[in-house]
Specification:
Structural class: mainly alpha
Number of strands: 0
Strand content: under 5%
Largest sheet: none
Radius of gyration: 12 Å
Length: about 60
C-alpha cells in the first residue's frame, strides 16, 4: 500500500487512527506499521509482538 499524499510527519497519528477505527468497527486488534519496504514492515511488526520494549511504540 502506498502512502503518497500522506504527510510523513503525521504517519504515527494516522496509524493510531487506523488502529482505533478498525478496533471500534470490528473489535479486532491490529498492528499498523510504516517502513520504506514491505519486508521491513513485517520485521518491525514481528518484533513489536515479541519484544516487550517495543510496546511503548504501539
Amino acid at each position: 500500500m502506498g502512502f503518497q499524499g500522506f504527510d510523513p510527519d503525521n504517519l504515527v497519528e494516522c496509524g493510531q487512527r487506523m488502529r482505533t477505527t478498525v478496533r471500534q468497527w470490528t473489535g479486532i486488534p491490529v498492528s499498523i506499521g510504516f517502513a520504506p519496504t514491505r519486508v521491513l514492515v513485517k520485521m518491525f511488526n514481528h518484533a513489536a509482538k515479541k519484544v516487550p520494549a517495543t510496546k511503548a511504540l504501539l
